[in-house]
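[job 4471] stage=fold_predict status=RUNNING
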Amino acid sequence: IASGMLLCFGIIGFGMIVHIAPHAIALGFSSSNAASILAGIGITTIVGRVALGSAADRIGDRRAFIIGFVMMLAGLLWLVSANQIWMFYLFAIPFGIAYGGMGASESPLIAWLFGLRSHGLILGVAGIGFTGGGAIGPFLAGYLFDITNSYQVSFLVFAAIAIIGLILSIFLKPVRVKPA
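[job 4471] inference complete, writing structure tokens
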């Protein structure tokens, strides 16, 4: 479940990072405006690492992922109809906060799920989902753009993937290891 959830996170995160600027340019915004949207995501990612990452220490990392997927979902649904530059900047806020907070919560979440014994190994194996998503997301968005000549379908598919990630996050349970 954890690897599947991280796969969803990687698909959405990397897919949007790679394709948000081309989407803005395709809608007629300048390349400097498109780059500033990406910079806004970067800034809010830092905020998310600090704010949502700190909140995760109090509310739990699983809840941080639940909040993150809800924020990504809201941002993606907003982006489907975004056609003005301010709408893109508004999208960047919840998306970046979610992306940063979920990234900061990844290692502690794996520790909560599996304990600290072999944490690096387990995090690496679970992280294959995230990096796999990083390979799939940009390709998927680009492919959907090529066949539809629009990013709206990509954003709706990413929204569906966010729902899947949210459901997987809800069902995460720590593994109970029997004493040796």
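[job 4471] summary: Helices lie at 2-26, 31-59, 61-80, 85-114, 119-148, 152-170.
[job 4471] exit 0
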